[in-house]
Amino acid sequence: MTVAKKLTDFFTISERLECELRLTRMSDGNMQAVASHSWNMIMMAIALRPYLKNPVNMESVMELCAIHDLPEAIAHDVPLHQQTDEIKAQKHICEQKAIDSINGLLQDEHIIDRFNEYELRKSPESRLVKLLDILDTGIQHMCCKDLTYVGTFRDNFYWKLFFSKSFADAFNYEPILRDVYDEIRQRVATRLKQELGIDAEALYTTE
Q1: Local confidence band at 205 (pLDDT 50, 70, 90 cut-offs)
Q2: CB 200 within 8 A of CB 186
Q3: Number of Cα atoms under 13 Å in the Cβ half of residue 19
Q4: d(CA 132, CA 187)
Q5: What phi-psi label fits residue 13: left (phi over 0), alpha (psi between -120 and 50 degrees) or beta?
Q6: In the CATH hierarchy, which top-level class contains the domain 3-203?
Q7: What is the pLDDT of residue 21?
């Protein structure tokens, strides 16, 4: 197989991220695509760069943003509220097989190294990208057309997570990210009160 054919095959795989839908919804009411999620993370990284306390290689950050969910083009996304320990273990196996398959096609260890870097979360770049990953969910809570759907899973699972101390404290790694999260949290709380009559403090958990 020629290099051109291998690259073209890879492009047909990566295109699927535009079709793979996440649970989160956008301002127009449509479900968010995985590719859109990754793009949002890259935009956040670019905007946040001047304010970051921990120095990072921005080229690496953007690569990690683009690659972190690449296996989902084959293995598909699994909503967080469905991820039991057993499903998480199976998800990990499926994603490793998917990234190995992609690497076998491209013969480029750089991609698999980047994915594994994100999974291990030891580098400053991977830690930042993970925070951007979870912050994007908050942005969708803030922007989505109708907040009602968020509370329909496992007794407000997503609201309890979003308003939990552990969720907020994760952003302390980068002060600017904590400031941004607090601003998003306030706006989401205002929407919940105005649109659904829900007091966000009642959802707060120290877990």
Answers
A1: low
A2: no
A3: 9
A4: 18
A5: alpha
A6: mainly alpha
A7: 96
Site of tokens 């496992």: 154
Tokens of 36: 């859109």
DSSP-derived secondary structure letter, 107: T
User: Which H, E and C letters describe the chain, residue by residue?
Assistant: CCHHHHHHHHHHHHHHHHCCEEEEECCCCCEEEHHHHHHHHHHHHHHHHHHCCCCCCHHHHHHHHHHCCCCHHHHCCCCHHHCCHHHHHHHHHHHHHHHHHHHHHHCCHHHHHHHHHHHHCCCHHHHHHHHHHHHHHHHHHHHCCCHHHHHHCCCCHHHHHHCEHHHHHHHHHCHHHHHHHHHHHHHHHHHHHHHHCCCHHHHCECC
In this structure, of 13-17, 91-95, 172-176, 200-204, the range with the lowest mean pLDDT score is 200-204
pTM score of the predicted model = 0.93
Query: Which tokens sit at 122?
Result: 């030891």
Q: What is the pLDDT of residues 186-204, one digit of tens each?
A: 999 999 999 999 998 888 7
